[in-house]
Amino acid sequence: MTLRALIWDVDGTLAETERDGHRVAFNQAFAAAGLPWRWDERRYGELLAVSGGHERLLHDMATRADAPAMPAAREALARALHRRKTAAYAALVARGAIGLRRGVLRLLGEARSAGARQAIATTTSRANVQALLSRHLGVRWADAWTAVVCADDAPLKKPHPMAYAVALERLRLAPHQALAIEDSPNGLAAAHAAGVPTLVTHSAYFASFDTRHALACSADLDLPPTPAATLPAVTAAPRVDWRWLCAAHAAWQRAQPAEAGSRSQSAY
After folding, report:
1. Separation CA 72–CA 168 (nearest Å)
2. Domain assignments of the chain as residue spans, ordered by start
3. 60-85, pLDDT tens digit by residue?
């Protein structure tokens, strides 16, 4: 079966938004609220085990003696801080503080030229996606995507596969007809649980983790990819491009048990 779609994660995959965008914006929100809290790079890296900014705030507050004691008060503070943070993040993006990762625009263009559909499956808000992509793709950024699945569309966040299930439904494709691009353990777990083969492009916070369920890995899209050891021989490439992804995807399909392929085809 031919590769028919790419499903992209956003934070850490399209751009290095976590360290240089969201973390900075959270700290600006804390300062604006008069709170003495600050997330350094190490602490924010720990918090990335929790998907979703609002959830991350609540998780962090549970460890703080100076956070509100009552759950309702914590929830209200988390919502207020998250609103401030979203506005601060949009301002950072608007002034050009966060660029797309190497090779992203190229691969988007290659897939579009090949007639492939493209989707986003992310646990961040649509406001954050719009801020980033309108800056880099223009005001008609949404035209580049057949489906855009954000936190409001899939409230069960990665590693739950809900975002991928919704994206596949909107693409009208079976899992084996698409390929996910992710950077994190939670993202890889979500795509794998949905049955979607995955390319991992390691990001600043996730330079190394267990990628046994990935189809291939690369430090970024402009560097040579390393296919999974379980794949049949795939020709080496100097970078991740559409042609190589199609070849790797075809090899992945050949390696799947026949009954798994028939189940995924009959499910859609």
Report:
1. 36
2. 5-16+99-266, 17-94
3. 999 999 999 999 999 999 999 999 99
Closest CA to 9 of 109, 100, 83, 114: 100
Cα distances (Å, whole numbers) of residue 235 to 161, 199, 213, 232, 243: 31, 16, 20, 10, 11
> 9 an active-site residue?
yes
Distance CA 129, CA 110 (A): 21
Q: Which residues contact 221 (CB under 8 A, 6 or more apart)?
A: 101, 102, 103, 104, 106, 107, 201, 239, 240
Active site residue 153: no
Preceding peptide of 159 cis, ω within 30°:
yes
Contact (Cβ atoms closer than 8 angstroms) between residue 64 and residue 37: yes
Instruction: Report the chain's mean pLDDT, rounded to a whole number.
Output: 94
From CA 104, how far away is CA 220, in angstroms rounded?
Answer: 9
- Residue in 90, 97, 153 with CA at minimum distance from that of residue 120: 153
CATH architecture for residues 17-94: Orthogonal Bundle (1.10)
Among 9, 60, 183, 241, which one carries the catalytic annotation?
9
